[in-house]
């Protein structure tokens, strides 16, 4: 990208920080902005506040060469990339307040020729809203929705598509969808991504790019819901769902995903609701898939309760708390919900095992005595509830669990 000297990345979380570090590693000055003083201080020491393989080394290198600096305040830059959360509210309506706050903080620093990129997964129409908000905050500048061919500022949506746990590799190798408010905007954004993306950059308009991201995650949600529904049907019919899926997947055009304790994370369990919210009449299957996946933790809890009824003083070990394998992320985790609920309902003595964390977040501190090692859980528990397919649990031999009742939501033991 011609004349590029500084990129500002707003939001230094699971997406913003790796993106900032990768851009800095290409020799561009990066100014990272986050509202968390703790995140900013940690990064400026060359360390990271999240778990992601190899990210620590990249951040350390970027900070020590002076290419990456973090701050709680933005400053002038050529490009502003927004990577803040877009959660939903209690009524499953999208909450755009983080994006709006980010736009408000960068607005005074925007200059003619700047490029603003929204990376956060967003409901259809959000990028256009940014253009409108900015036209109100900066009436001195022409925004692309006002004059697509001669705007002063370029605005595009380029949804992140990386898989937690493989972020650094996927940031570079994945194809990127780049949706501009105008084709000039898309073109300009592509020049930035070509700096570090080896995959193809696919240009479209902002609304299609927004919908593409929501579609990808809804596709996965619907497919996981199919697997989860199958697992409940198979329990009812006394068929091993894992054997069944393996056999069915031998058909050349069948590829069933894996059942689990429910769908977690802040993407797949959230994004389909953005589609439901904007097209409630049409999005029937997408809504139902969400409901099936959301009901799975309750189903697992009922199974554990039934098993616990067989013991006088049941000791139950929940193996895994994170939302998926080999990460430390507990947000929107069905495994954590199940552990909390079993504990709350006093189904027995509940032991929590999570090898990727040292302590529980504040909200769960009252359960800290329940966080035990796998070793202790194997010694003490009558019932093992496998909730996450962590490497550590995969290394268990069937002899290790032979004397236990095992409720295996991940098919670790076949
Ligand atoms: N899960 C199953 N069965 C499966 C696959 C996943 O139960 O067969 C569960 C996982 O255990 C987890 C949840 O689904 O609880 C989501 O995990 P995931 O690995 O499918 O996805 P995320 O949330 O880590 O990342 C997704 C990715 N989207 C797609 O694969 C379409 C990623 O590429 C996106 O960038 C990310 O969402 C995002 O940020 O939106």
Layout of helices and strands:
Elements: E1 6-10, H1 16-25, E2 29-33, H2 37-44, H3 55-64, E3 68-71, E4 79-82, H4 97-106, E5 115-118, H5 126-137, E6 154-157, H6 167-173, E7 176-180, H7 183-193, E8 201-205, H8 206-237, H9 241-248, H10 271-278, H11 284-308, E9 315-319, H12 334-344, E10 349-353, H13 374-380, E11 383-386, H14 391-394, E12 405-408
Parallel strand pairs: 1-2, 1-4, 2-3, 4-5, 5-6, 7-8, 9-10, 9-11, 11-12
Antiparallel strand pairs: 6-7
Helix pairs in contact: 1-3, 4-5, 8-10, 8-11, 10-11, 11-12
The structure holds ligand SAJ.
Question: Summary?
Answer:
The chain has 414 residues and is an alpha/beta fold.
3D structure, described in words:
With 414 residues, this protein is α/β, with parallel strands linked by helices. The protein folds into two domains: 6-199, Rossmann fold, CATH 3.40.50; 239-408, 3-Layer(aba) Sandwich (Rossmann fold), CATH 3.40.50. It has helices spanning 16-25, 37-44, 55-64, 97-106, 126-137, 167-173, 183-193, 206-237, 241-248, 271-278, 284-308, 334-344, 374-380, 391-394, and strands at residues 6-10, 29-33, 68-71, 79-82, 115-118, 154-157, 176-180, 201-205, 315-319, 349-353, 383-386, 405-408. The strands form two sheets. An eight-stranded mixed β-sheet has the order 3-2-1-4-5-6-7-8, with helices on both faces. Strands 10-9-11-12 form a four-stranded parallel β-sheet, sandwiched between helices. Helix 8 packs across helix 10 (271-278). The model has no long low-confidence stretch (mean pLDDT 96). The structure holds ligand SAJ.
């Amino acid at each position: 990208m011609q004349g590029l000297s500084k990129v500002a990345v707003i939001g230094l979380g699971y997406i913003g920080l790796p993106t900032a570090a990768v851009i800095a590693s290409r020799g561009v000055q990066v100014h990272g902005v986050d509202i968390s003083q703790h995140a900013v201080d940690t990064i400026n020491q060359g360390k990271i506040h999240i778990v992601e393989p190899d990210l620590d080394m990249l951040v350390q290198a970027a900070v020590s060469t002076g290419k990456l600096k973090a701050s709680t305040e933005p400053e002038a830059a050529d490009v502003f990339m927004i990577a803040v959360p877009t959660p939903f509210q209690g009524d499953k309506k999208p909450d755009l307040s983080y994006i709006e706050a980010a736009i408000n903080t960068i607005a005074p620093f925007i200059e003619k020729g700047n490029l603003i990129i929204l990376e956060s997964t967003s409901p259809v129409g959000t990028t256009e809203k940014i253009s409108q908000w900015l036209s109100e905050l900066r009436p001195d500048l022409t925004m692309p929705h006002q004059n697509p061919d001669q705007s002063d500022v370029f605005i595009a949506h380029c949804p992140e598509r990386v898989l937690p746990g493989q972020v650094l590799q996927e940031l570079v190798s994945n194809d990127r969808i780049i949706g501009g408010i105008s084709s000039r905007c898309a073109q300009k954004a592509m020049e930035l991504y070509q700096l570090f993306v080896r995959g193809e950059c696919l240009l479209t308009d902002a609304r299609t790019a927004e919908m593409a991201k929501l579609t990808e995650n809804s596709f996965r949600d619907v497919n996981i819901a199919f697997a989860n529904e199958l697992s409940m049907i198979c329990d009812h019919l006394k068929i091993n769902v894992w054997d069944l899926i393996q056999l069915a997947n031998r058909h050349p055009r069948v590829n069933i995903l894996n059942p689990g304790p429910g769908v977690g994370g802040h993407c797949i369990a959230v994004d389909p609701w953005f589609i439901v919210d904007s097209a409630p009449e049409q999005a029937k299957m997408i809504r139902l898939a969400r409901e099936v996946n959301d009901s799975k933790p309750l189903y697992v809890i009922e199974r554990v309760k039934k098993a616990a009824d067989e013991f006088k003083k049941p000791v139950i070990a929940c193996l895994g708390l994170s939302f998926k394998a080999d990460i430390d992320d507990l947000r929107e985790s069905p495994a954590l919900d199940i552990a909390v609920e079993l504990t709350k309902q006093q189904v027995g003595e509940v032991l929590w095992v999570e090898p990727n964390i040292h302590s529980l977040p504040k909200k769960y501190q009252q359960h800290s005595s329940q966080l035990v090692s796998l070793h202790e859980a194997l010694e003490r528990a009558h019932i093992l509830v496998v909730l996450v397919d962590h490497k550590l649990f995969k290394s268990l031999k069937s002899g290790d669990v032979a004397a236990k009742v095992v409720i295996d939501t991940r098919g670790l033991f076949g």
